[in-house]
Task: structure prediction
Amino acid sequence: MAVYILRRSISAIGVMAMVGMFVFLLLRLAPGDPAAMIAGRSATAEMIAGIREQMGLNDPLPVQFIRWVRDLIGGDFGTSIFAGRPVLELISQRLEPTISLSILTMIVSVTVGVSFGVLAAWRAGGLVDRILTAFATVGFSVPVFVVGFFLIYLFAIRTHWLPVQGYQPIDHGFGPWLVHLILPTVTLSVPYIAFIARITRASMLEVLSEDYMRTAAAKGASSYAMLFHHALKNAGAPILTVIGLSFAGLIGGVVITETVFNIPGVGRLVVDAINNRDYPIIQGVLILVSGLYVLINLAVDLSYTLIDPRIRY
Amino acid sequence: MISRRDLIKTGMAAGAAISIPSLLRAQTSPSTDQTVRMVIDNLSVFDPVVTTADSTYTHAFAVYDTLFGTDSQFAPHPQMVGKWDVSDDRKTYTFELRDGLGWHDGTPVTATDCVASIRRWGQVAPGGQLLMARVRDISKKDDKTFAIALKEPLGALLNILAFQGPFIMREKDANLSPAEQVTANIGSGPFKFNHALARPGASFTYDRNEKYVPRTEAPDGLAGGKIVKVDRVIWDIGLFADQQTALAALHSGEIDFLLAPPLDLLPVIESDPNLELQVLDKAGSDYLLRMNCLQKPFDNVKARQAMLHLVDQEAMMRAAVGDPKYFRTVTSMFGNETPMSNDENTEWFKKGGDPEKAKQLFKEAGYDGEKVVILQPTDWAAASNASQLLAAELRKIGLNAELAPSDWGGVVARRANKGPVEDGGWSIFITTEPEAILGNVITDVTLPMNGESGWFGWPKNDEYEALRVKWADLETLEERKVLARKMQQIWWDYVPSVLLGQSVAPSARRKTLTGLIGVPAWIPFWNMQKAEA
Result:
């Protein structure tokens, strides 16, 4: 196991190095100039040139790259071109909303999605299955901003039950924190519930047709024991993979939901940075998110051994 | 089988769940204290010397103060300055600061701060550069007095200091290079930047500066008394990312003001009895297209004149703005509303444009099928739509027009390329300029015709430039109006830009918010007041 973790860690460093180099080159080759963006619409070429010089953007690309990598190894993710503040500080300010939203979304999505999937598989071909499958299809197809605006209209504008937008840090109180996250969580959960339900249903159907399930039924096992003790555990690996990847994806990409509900998270940070061509922020976020992907993947792979004793590393 | 006990438990749980929102409503409902929440724009640069962005100026007007300010007619009036004097030879101006000026950190504002601020601003701002070219010395006389000594008289000096003039910063901030951002946000203005409540990506908070001593005159534009009537202003920058959500927040009372609601949603605002539309900047902005005067085909004056005849302003503005209530045609290079506006040499204007005349002029220019590249900012709907219409009109008269779509960031980078289109250059881009700035010959970057050292498009005309330089020497409005006519005569013969029309943008506010001051492009936070809902 230790050798496996070490091998995965070394390959993770390689992956992140490739990501870093790719992102750095892509940003420099893409059209756009952060100095021109800072200077504003009416800026003169002279003003823009002054900012470029100040920011070190006139240096040759290899010099800029080596400087960035050297700083990164030293734990310095650089300074935002626009905000003039350390990238890590800006990212850490934005992590709480994104992580809050992601965790709540995963809790709701896994709970509801797995339940729906199990139920649909258990009642395969019946009315319940057809209703849940239809929900899964629609839920996965409807864009999140449509769901978001519908919920805003219903629960914020019509009834005033919940706020339209915004985020309250958890240290301002659990109530305000939760209230501001209910609509975004529900919005973001819809496609994930649909996705997890579909995967769960498919996995469960496969397991439920196995011989040992028939044996369990013949031995008089209860429906609960058959579904949750035998079937779900053995159908768990693909479900766990989907959940892990979904969670990693959520951390890096809740952009639309964060925008619709005005949540100042990492997704919004990186979109603003792209619009402004704020290279250090884009690079910093992508390096962190790719690192997170690698970590979550590793955690998912390791967790297989917990749910399926046949798997060994 | 569901038991009766399960049913009761389920019912109680559902009841509790439904009641949670109402229990928490008090914590999420908009507060009715004197806090104003505004959605204006994004704000990412806090130093008005580093950038010309409107949002940074709005921030700066809240936090910093200025030596002079312009009234609604663009005339200069003292602001931080108490008394001022000019020598008989009109070469030395002496300024004395008024009493009671203090920095937000508690220290007094001194003449040294003013001298340092003028020097830093003078290195980059167009008006500042003109001033510095004429300056012999800027020096402190005593703690409250400083003087600007000139090599020769500069009639427009007070106008330069008043309109887009220096925001006064502490000496230690003003000693930074003009390209290095000041992030301290310590000013002497009517509002204090609340660093503890700054939420990058979400909101910035400005508190009333209790120690601010306003002038006694009535507020008028950016001049007069800056009297703060609310406790706090929260600038919701996060909501700017999605105007639909911002509008929903305005409806629900979570915000009080939305600077630029989407034009297609104006009827929704009009139908809400709690909301009101208001045009704050009555002069608005002029849409204009800029041509690359260095490259074919627009290095030929006939081709540029052809564009003047081709453009149908009403069609362009319908594409860009939509509702005719919010636009009109414009023929003066100084816009419709400024004192400099005039009708000299505007015979080219024809309702609906004159494509045949344009076609003939392109022929006279020797147009030979060269590619005409229009930079199309796809993240700015108005300019994007106008670019598409322009491309279609050009193709109709036989030009090889091509759109180069990118976000605005791509446009501002590419427009700096002076080379031919084959090497990543460009032919045309569309932008806007506030009329208030168009009327100010010194500070507007689109008005010079000083060739490659000037603004994108790089028009060059020495005769015009000789006239433009005279502007700063003139003392009276009448003299400037005469000069404006002469400049316009040359301008529309040379055609460095083509006007597409003038537009104004309504802002949306809750009716409980009143007293907003209408000035070009920026939103002053003073004078607003908020009534109980």
Q: What stands out?
A: DSSP finds 16 helices and 23 strands in chain B. The CA atoms of residues 173 and 440 of chain B lie 28 Å apart.
